[in-house]
């Protein structure tokens, strides 16, 4: 974070004006020069399509490995060690195939993201009120540790109560889990960041209890491993993708079950409520995951840098008001 009077980075290649503090409001923050809002539509490359295909095959490959291991264990338990059990070669071959798929996917993902950094696109903020940023691309890229699923420049935001209300529950030892309504972000409106067309809606996953505590970390990471194997939908939970035009798409993730108010093919206007913040998918507490990308399918997309109009790109733990 930058103290008042110090220029702070607001995103890849962008800065915020001097005098803007970490608690600066949207009205106080102004961009020094306009950001590009025009991009050519990009057809997914062959490596991108291949990486997406391998990613979709991963669950089946791992299911095959697990099934073979269980079958072999079943044969041992039944004392069928007379040649009717599976051979070690079969198990090794299945495991090797799964590992090869992982290596191929990693290689293809790196190939997809080679090349110059895309130009930043300015859009309206997806929320209103007082929020804090987490996992921000203003601090590192890729912001979430990986470039897969178009999330190189993704950001997470959590709602902060207006004083003098109690702050949102802190990460700690007790209680291990909480109800979502204990967090001010839960149920907050999510807004369209531009005039756009809805191209993808997923709204059926339930909101789970929070995992915002030390005792809940281990089960959370176990769950995350299974979600990763299950694919993109299990990671992002309920989500929405908007086509902003000119080859730019906005993804909103971890939305509240049943809260999406738009349908695929529908046109939306800037600032229109399209959903509400939830706690679905790979999420420890109610928050909004937002990203721009260059394709409608996150499995083939590259991340695109963004800046929120009047805010820029808040840094990690920076509080901003829209």
UniProtKB/TrEMBL annotation:
Database matches in Gene3D superfamilies: Glucose Permease (Domain IIA)
UniProt-annotated stretches for the region Disordered: 1-47
GO molecular function, one term: metalloendopeptidase activity
Ranges of residues in domain M23ase beta-sheet core: 235-296
Domain of life assignment: Bacteria
Ranges of biased composition (kind: Low complexity): 34-47
Species for this entry: Streptomyces carminius
Coiled-coil segments: none
PANTHER family with a match to the protein in the record: MUREIN HYDROLASE ACTIVATOR ENVC, PEPTIDASE-RELATED
Protein's recorded name: Peptidase M23
InterPro entries referenced in this protein's UniProt entry, alphabetically: Cell_wall_metabolism_enzyme, Dup_hybrid_motif, M23ase_b-sheet_dom
């Amino acid at each position: 974070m930058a103290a008042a009077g110090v220029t702070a980075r607001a995103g890849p290649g962008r800065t915020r004006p001097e005098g803007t503090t970490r608690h600066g409001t949207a009205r106080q923050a102004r961009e020094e020069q306009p950001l590009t809002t025009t991009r050519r539509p990009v057809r997914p490359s062959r490596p991108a399509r291949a990486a997406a295909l391998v990613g979709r095959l991963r669950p089946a490959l791992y299911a095959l490995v697990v099934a073979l291991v269980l079958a072999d264990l079943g044969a041992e338990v039944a004392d069928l060690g007379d040649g009717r059990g599976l051979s070690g070669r079969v198990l090794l071959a299945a495991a090797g195939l799964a590992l090869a798929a992982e290596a191929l996917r990693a290689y293809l993902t790196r190939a997809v993201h080679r090349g110059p950094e895309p130009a930043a696109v300015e859009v309206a903020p997806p929320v209103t009120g007082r929020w804090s940023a987490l996992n921000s691309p203003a601090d590192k890229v890729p912001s979430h540790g990986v470039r897969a699923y178009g999330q190189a420049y993704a950001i997470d935001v959590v709602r902060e109560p207006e004083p003098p209300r109690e702050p949102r529950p802190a990460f700690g030892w007790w209680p291990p889990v909480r109800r979502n309504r204990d967090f001010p972000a839960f149920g907050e409106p999510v807004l369209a960041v531009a005039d756009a067309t809805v191209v993808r809606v997923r709204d059926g996953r339930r909101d789970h209890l929070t995992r915002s505590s030390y005792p809940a970390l281990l089960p959370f990471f176990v769950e995350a491993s299974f979600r990763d194997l299950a694919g993109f939908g299990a990671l992002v939970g309920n989500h929405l993708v908007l086509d902003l035009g000119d080859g730019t798409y906005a993804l909103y993730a971890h939305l509240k079950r049943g809260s999406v108010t738009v349908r695929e093919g529908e046109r939306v206007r800037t600032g229109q409520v399209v959903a509400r913040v939830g706690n679905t998918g790979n999420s420890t507490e109610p928050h909004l995951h937002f990203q721009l990308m260059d394709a409608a399918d996150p499995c083939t997309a590259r991340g695109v840098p963004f800046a929120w109009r009047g805010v820029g790109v808040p840094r990690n733990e920076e509080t901003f008001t829209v």
